[in-house]
Here is the input.
Amino acid sequence: MKYSAWHIIAFLFTLIGILAILFVVGISFFFHRFNVNQVVNDKITDLELISNTIAGPSWTVKESYPGTIENTFRGVLKMPGVKFIRLISSESNIIEKSGNIDEVNNVNIDNLPLFSRDVSVRDGTLDGELIKEFSIKTRDGSDLWMGVSLINVKKNILFSAVLMGIVAMVLMTITIMVVFLLVRYVFMSPLAVLMSAFGKLKNSDYDVQLGKARIIEMQEVFDSFNQMVAKVKEAEVKLAEELKRAKEIDRMKSEFISVAAHQLRTPLSAVKWTMKMLIDGDIGHLTHEQRTFLMQGYISNERIINLVNDLLNVARIEEGRFGYKFAMIQIEDLIESIVLDIKHKVKEKELDFKFERSGLPKPPKIKIDPS
Here is the structure.
């Protein structure tokens, strides 16, 4: 199966487009994952900062300024995605401080996280919503627990990723279109011109010439084509001259053969009938030896006549005139010529054969080949 250059280029650009789409989708996916992980790391940093703030190494806000913790927690609760922040007593598992005042001293806490000096992260649920739970043990031994919903954060990140993907796709599409137009302008258009020139050359248009190309290599191809056309045109002219000369030689040869054959046929026919009359004794009596010599000459003359007829047939074949040559003749004239041809045979057999024209009107002419 054969394909045109346009089909191949279209296939390549389609393949590039598909790969570009997969690339953009992959980049968007990794961008999304990276930013989600970045948000988690930011929350870990925030929780460590809060832990160090409310329970520092030398003194604690919890002990010195207990009202400040509630204000800090309420401020943290206003951060995007934060669902709760709690300070848990490590001894009684009671909420000592919370961004939600209603949770303070609540003892019905299930499934507490495992608190340690490093921030721990786990998946959890709150009112049926999936959240990330961050927990750390402060320096004074209290447990700090924060729940963050990443739904809105993920939506924002996803929106940014999609937007980035769309922008990348638009840029990729523009790039592909620019490359396609560049390929078409620089390569395909000159190639189409070259193919059109070859079509004209195939139809024996030897005046076709290619102009200037924008690419050096394509210009070299155009110049080579023009040189080839010039050489083909020159060879065609020489071939036409040689063909004309050969036809003229053939015509002269055929004409010579035809003229020579016709010129030979008439005297050979006269010699034939003269020798036949001598052999038949129409002129006078001949001895047996004389008749034998004349008979040999008669046979040789017949051979020459047959050779002349063959030469005439060859001339007719070369001129395209071999075959029947019809003409309108009188039937009586045809019969009379036949009688003359067989007259000597009739006489040899001592038959009485006569052809007499009737006094009736001549019959109509007939169309036959007299030869």
Summary: Strands lie at 82-88, 95-98, 120-126, 129-137, 143-148, 327-329, 366-368. The first helix runs from residue 5 to 54.
